[in-house]
Design a protein that fits this description.
Structural class: mainly alpha
CATH superfamily of the domain at 13-147: Intergrase catalytic core
Helix content: 40-55%
Strand content: under 5%
CATH class of the domain at 13-147: Mainly Alpha
Number of strands: 0
Shape: globular
CATH topology of the domain at 13-147: hpI Integrase, Chain A
Oligomer: single chain
């Protein structure tokens, strides 16, 4: 039997604020680290894919401050010896700051979770899957479709709410039951399937 696909972890706005608050700005390496995570969280950046991104004036100023303090290097995110920052270092940094911020399931917080958070927030704000696809640099829309889980959750929440009349229309009251019926109607496979 195949396991259901686990949805990516996404940071809430409060978790994002707590996470970013754990970054010091005093030392050059701390400033570089903040630039790195803000680029992941606010632009969905990852390595190995060139594309044009837009970011806030605040992030532009932060990058400018880092550029004034960093050693001469071909890399935006470089060590004090001008070498490229190791991706393993960034993964460990993100996890360590997530633990420090008290984020639930901090062991699941990775640079890719920051990218998922960016995509989810963008889709939530714009309701436009094509914009999310372009911002993420996905060649296929199917790759971007995982972020529609947000719309599904918000639709369910909206349908479960009491209607303005105060009586409730019954709409949404059977959502959980229908989902269970739908799941139960799928053919079972594997060792526990009935013959």
């Amino acid at each position: 039997m195949t396991r259901p696909r686990r949805l990516p972890k996404v940071l809430t706005p409060d978790e994002q604020r707590a996470f970013l608050a754990k970054f010091d700005r005093c030392y050059p390496s701390a400033l570089r680290n903040l630039v790195a995570v803000r680029l992941m969280l606010q632009c969905g950046l990852r390595r190995g894919k060139d594309r044009i991104v837009w970011f806030s004036d605040d992030l532009r100023d932060l990058i400018s401050r880092w550029l004034d303090r960093r050693p001469a290097s071909d890399w935006l995110l470089c060590t004090r010896h001008a070498a490229q920052v190791n991706s393993r270092y960034l993964r460990e940094l993100v996890k360590r700051k997530a633990v420090s911020a008290g984020i639930p399931e901090a062991d699941r917080v990775t640079p890719h979770v920051l990218r998922h958070t960016f995509a989810t927030d963008l889709l939530r704000e714009t309701k436009n899957i094509r914009l999310a696809q372009k911002a993420l640099g996905h060649a296929s829309l199917a790759t971007t479709m995982i972020y529609t889980h947000v719309a599904d959750e918000e639709l369910e929440t909206a349908m479960r709410r009491e209607r303005p009349s105060g009586r409730g229309t019954g709409v949404g009251q059977g959502i959980a039951e229908q989902r269970l019926v739908h799941e139960a109607s799928r053919p079972q496979t594997g060792p526990n399937a009935e013959a």
